[in-house]
Amino acid sequence: EQGFEVDDSSLTQAISTLRKQLQDSTKSPQYVKTVPKRGYQLICNVERTTPLMSGETPSKEDVSEESEEQLTELTTESQSSELTPDEKAAHSATAPTTGKSKWVTRIMLLLAILMPLCVILFTNPAESKFRQVAVYDGTPVMTPVNHPDLSKWYPSIEQCVKRYNAAHSTVAPVEVIATGGQN
């Protein structure tokens, strides 16, 4: 279960150690075959075994899922065993993520979705405070407290309020909020 990393310089030594532990000869190999000018090839059948937890029996669903996983792993291992050392290094760099990193990725994705939602749902915008600057035709005209002076706009605002009230006599505005532009 410990395993070790192999680079180009120690690949031959690693294969030799593997052969010794598997008691595999170089003359008639049963597990690892040397492919001249290409690298090494795994020539044995590989099966994955998973121990059952405290007397549990696998359901048919679990068995079929494990069979599919084993088939995928066998295909992947047989493909990677035919690669040269350089190809193996490139292939291992794009290897699938482990179970732990899958959970980390899922949690990060969930947080990335939840954080903006929390900001939107649980924060209230600051309420503006207004001051009344005039009353035209019974309609108060308000402006934000921190807003610059609008006194030169009063005649235009008065005209707008009166025309609106004349055109919409049944629906008079409760208040008018006036803000000034740059000019």
Automatic annotation (TrEMBL):
Region: Disordered; residue ranges are 46-97
- The residue ranges of the OmpR/PhoB-type domain are 1-44
Tell me the GO BP annotations in alphabetical order.
phosphorelay signal transduction system; regulation of DNA-templated transcription
| Pfam families named among the record's database cross-references | Trans_reg_C
* Compositional bias (Low complexity): 72-83
Give yes or no: UniProt keyword DNA damage. no
Where does the sequence pass through the membrane?
103-122
This protein's name: Transmembrane regulatory protein ToxR
Which organism is the protein's source?
Vibrio alginolyticus
